[in-house]
Amino acid sequence: MSFFTRKISRRTVMQALIALPALSLVRKLPVADPEAIVEVNGWILKRGDLT
Amino acid sequence: MIFDSYEAFRAVNFTAKVCILGSGPAGTTIARKLGAAGIPVVVLEAGSREFSDDSQDFYRGVTVGDPYFDLDITRLRFMGGSSNHWAGWCRVLDSQDFEPKAWAPDTGWPISRADIEPYLPEVHEILELPDFRPDVLVSDDIRWVQLIKSSAVRFGEKFADELDRSRNVAVVLDTYATELAGDGKRVTGAKLWSNGKDPGSFTADYFVVCTGGLENSRLLLWSNQRSNGGVVPNAAALGTYWMEHPTFEGGNAILADYSEFEVDATNEAFFSPTLAAMERLEIMNFGIRLIETPYPGIKSIIADLACTVPEMAEWVSHQLSQNLRCAAQLYVTWEQAPLASNRILLSKTDVDHAGVPRIELHWKKSELERRTLLEGLRLFGTTFVQKDLGRVRIANWLTNGGDYPTNEELAGHHHMGGTRMGTDMTKSVVDANSKVHGMDNLYVGGSSVFCTSGECNPTTTIAALACRLGDHLGKVIGA
């Protein structure tokens, strides 16, 4: 067994892995503002124009 | 009185108090003002009543730097001067154009717009203009401005009868003042060239040089060289800070809403930045000319839009079926940063038929102007998005950092600077009254006195400055 698995139980590792998706959900992700001005191929647009 | 030659003029006994060189908008306006005030004036016009290739040949020259028009094409040398090919577009420089800009060196005039406003009613009469409507703020950054497309007064045609009847104004055609002589305090005479001969010199108490935005510098540079600095004693800036209004197609627009502005009779509308936007972006003034595109012309724009934003292209197609006026070309004209390196020099190798060195024009657009063009279009495009007026596309050559196109208009045929107005004698040639620094009797009229160019066509401001100079001279001479 590696040093890592000797110090932490398998159960703890599994719980941590299971919790990862949940953590990403609560993390604050930037929300694209549809009114923001963007320049694409020379066009001056609203970000909302692209969706 | 109009004389077709200097010989005919010499046969009458007419003593002039003021000699005006050039019969374009500035020269004619000043002559009319002085004549109306009872002051005898001679106007020496190098050309005749009509266009001729022989006369134009005196205007040939070369340009060093950016591509520019042939110098014998971009101006006219006959009675009425370059008003003979003027398009007639009118607008006065904005108040902000007269103010110094911290981000653009050597800007600012020694006078303000308020100094020429009292003359605008006269200008409206001369140019046959209705009142200007006030600018309309489309956003905090962009103004919808008005350019009046007038009937384009040809000064030679319009005022020929009046000048011919005048007892105080003598217009002498085919009479080219090749140089002024001076002693460092006063101009003492003008050397002439008429009908291929040297008929001697002409003297008057006052001289006003109104030969055009290129020729004023040429005449004064040559005169000063011949008189060892006796005509422009403070000549450091003579010929420098020359400016034009570069003009290029900068992009397209698709229009959705006309509620914030309307197009004129030729389906055009004009937009300029606010001073706050210029300050924030540290750019020069500019004018966007929006020209509604005929229906077939917009297919390529929609095709391009479909590659970028397919859904929006569908929306545009839908709009198109309901409203054929929904696309536009965007032409941009901008104010050049005043640069001493943009200047008129005398050719060392080439002279005209009278022996006067031809012009060597050094002219190059600057990086600040390139930024003005690009950021100006972005500003305009952003206003269009925020106000939901439509969408703007900036031309590829601009976004890709490409060269200026060489198959377009290039500029406005607006020749400004070279004898600019100012208080600093190292950076200007004339004072706030258009009098040459250090000289008692020499004045300059026309757009060569412009310190900055603004973004609008110069003729209206030229006429206002000419009215002001005519008034000033009338007071000086009458005192």
TrEMBL record, chain A:
Name of the featured protein: Uncharacterized protein
Organism: Mesorhizobium tianshanense
Automatic annotation (TrEMBL), chain B:
Pfam families, A to Z: GMC_oxred_C (PF05199)
Example of a GO MF term: oxidoreductase activity, acting on CH-OH group of donors
Keywords: FAD, Flavoprotein, Oxidoreductase
Coiled coil: none
Cofactor: FAD
Domain Glucose-methanol-choline oxidoreductase C-terminal: 338-466
InterPro entries: FAD/NAD-bd_sf, GMC_OxRtase_C, P2Ox-like
Keyword Nuclease in record: no
Family: Belongs to the GMC oxidoreductase family.
Protein name as it appears in the record: Choline dehydrogenase-like flavoprotein
Organism from which the protein derives: Mesorhizobium tianshanense
